[in-house]
């Protein structure tokens, strides 16, 4: 099965926040949770300022899953990293392990450390472990667009197509083609096709 992944093409991101607003409203997220955020770096420095839309990167080696003491994370065959809110004890280990700050306490749940709620994070619009399209799944995890063959809300909403999601090799190819058209030196971006799905393109982009 193809592995799915997100990338944000920084040269196309215009900091409009359409992706994050679409995510917030489409999944009816509590105020405490921002599954996707847009950051601007090097603000005010001519030629160096850029914006990036960041959420869970659905890591192949998912550090969150490695540290969770109750194994509430699971990785689907298509690479989407999901978690079970009914199993979460809200210990916060995943929050500290995640390099992208993706897991966040929802403050409305009922974990053992109940005041902070249970952990929430981007599902790549793929729901959770409850029955697909059930009210339980929708209430706990939001929309399940992947089950309907749709792209995640954020990527669908991005007007400049800065956010791309899909088969990892195709996503890598789209980004590589864009970079070549811009005349950049590809450097180590040109990975062999057979390694493309394993290659953490986002970490190259972050340098
Ligand atoms: S919708 Fe696209 S352009 Fe707008 S902030 Fe998000 S990634 Fe950037
Ligand atoms: S929550 Fe963080 S560590 Fe876990 S898969 Fe997402 S980005 Fe990776």
TrEMBL record:
Source organism: Campylobacter corcagiensis
Alphabetical list of PANTHER family matching this protein: PROTEIN NRFC, PROTEIN NRFC HOMOLOG
Cofactor: [4Fe-4S] cluster
CDD domains on file: DMSOR_beta_like
Gene3D superfamilies per the UniProt record, alphabetical: 3.30.70.20
Keyword terms, alphabetized: 4Fe-4S, Electron transport, Iron, Iron-sulfur, Metal-binding, Transport
Domain 4Fe-4S ferredoxin-type, chain residue ranges per copy: 4-34, 46-78, 79-108
Record-level Gene Ontology MF annotations: 4 iron, 4 sulfur cluster binding; electron transfer activity; metal ion binding
Keyword Chaperone belongs to the record: no
Listed InterPro entries: 4Fe4S_Fe-S-bd (IPR017896), 4Fe4S_Fe_S_CS (IPR017900), 7Fe_ferredoxin (IPR000813), ET_IronSulfur_Cluster-Binding (IPR050954)
Stated name of the protein: 4Fe-4S dicluster domain-containing protein
A Pfam family per the record: Fer4_11
């Amino acid at each position: 099965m193809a592995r799915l992944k997100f990338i944000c093409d920084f040269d196309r991101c215009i900091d409009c926040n359409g992706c994050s607003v679409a995510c917030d409203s489409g999944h009816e997220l509590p105020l405490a949770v921002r599954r996707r955020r847009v950051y601007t770096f090097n603000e005010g420095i001519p030629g160096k300022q850029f914006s990036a839309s960041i959420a869970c990167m659905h890591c192949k080696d998912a550090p969150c899953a490695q540290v969770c003491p109750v194994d509430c994370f699971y990785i689907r065959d298509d690479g989407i990293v999901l978690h079970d809110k009914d199993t979460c004890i809200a210990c916060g280990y995943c929050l500290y392990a995640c390099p992208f700050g993706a897991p966040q306490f929802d403050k409305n749940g009922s974990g053992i450390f109940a005041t902070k709620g249970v952990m929430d994070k981007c599902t790549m619009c793929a729901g959770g472990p409850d029955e697909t399209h059930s009210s339980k799944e929708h209430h706990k995890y939001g929309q399940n667009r992947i089950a309907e063959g749709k792209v995640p809300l954020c990527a669908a909403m991005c007007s400049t197509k800065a956010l791309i999601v899909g088969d990892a090799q195709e996503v890598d190819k789209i980004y590589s083609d864009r970079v070549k058209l811009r005349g950049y030196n590809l450097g180590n971006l040109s990975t062999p096709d057979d390694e493309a799905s394993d290659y953490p393109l986002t970490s190259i982009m972050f340098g």
